[in-house]
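pasting for the record
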Amino acid sequence: MKQLEYQGWKNCYQIESGDCRMIATADIGPRIVHLSRGNGENLLKLFEEQIGRVGGDDWRLVGGHRVWYAPEDPVTSYIPDNDPVEVEVISSDEICFKVSLIPEVEKSLIMRVATNTNEFELINQIRNASDQVLRTASWGITTFAPGGVGYMPISKAISPSDTLSASGQINLWDYTLFSDPAFTWRSEWIEFHQERTLSKQKVGTYLRNPWLAYRLGESLVIKTFDFNKEDLSAYDFPDLGSNVEVYFDTYMLELEGLSPWTELKPGETVSHTEKLQVLAIEPDWSHEKVIELVKSAITSG
């Protein structure tokens, strides 16, 4: 771990796994602002006019990875997070960033090196700081740079006896338009070709073994989640039963994960862990070959 200045933010922290590096800033957020392989470019989207800015009363998207919480609300979700956050260096490979944006909610983001090479773990946590019960879910949103292709698997029947029944679901937003040229439907996954999109789009789904992925140039980011438990179902998750969601528009693509709905008593927390693994690929690889790499990485992990 090392402290550094990054893109105008004075107080940033970098950790490394294999030949990959991840940087978070403590000047705003919490916010992860950089993810790269080798000396490659930042795989995360940062909005140029917002880079390095601190303070102010306007909520700014900024980009990178942020902690969110359900349900999304036009007021409470968009309270500005433009001020410094509390930092706890747990070890050389693990750092916690914490902030109370309103008196009722505290957000925490733990960034740490994972077991596998070129892999990081992000713990997205929400604490109920009020004196009332709060029904919410932790939510991790990773915003990627444009020009790539996102992947979401499609649920399949568990056994041959289940093939006559519905095996999965796709949840939509009011602005979702399947005729948008960004969508490509495969038998086992959906592709989101970000650079083809004409307007903002979003879909969600429930996956028993959830993962999402994004390819950009010579890098593939695989995002996995820790809530594949047998006692959970789509009924337990926000947004009509979504534990993973993909949002994209003409500027970026987001891979998102949500914990189950949780009734938090005062002082209680809800959290979930997301792993981001960055692998090398060739730009001319077929999507089928990329998906095989995703499956292999998940199985070996």
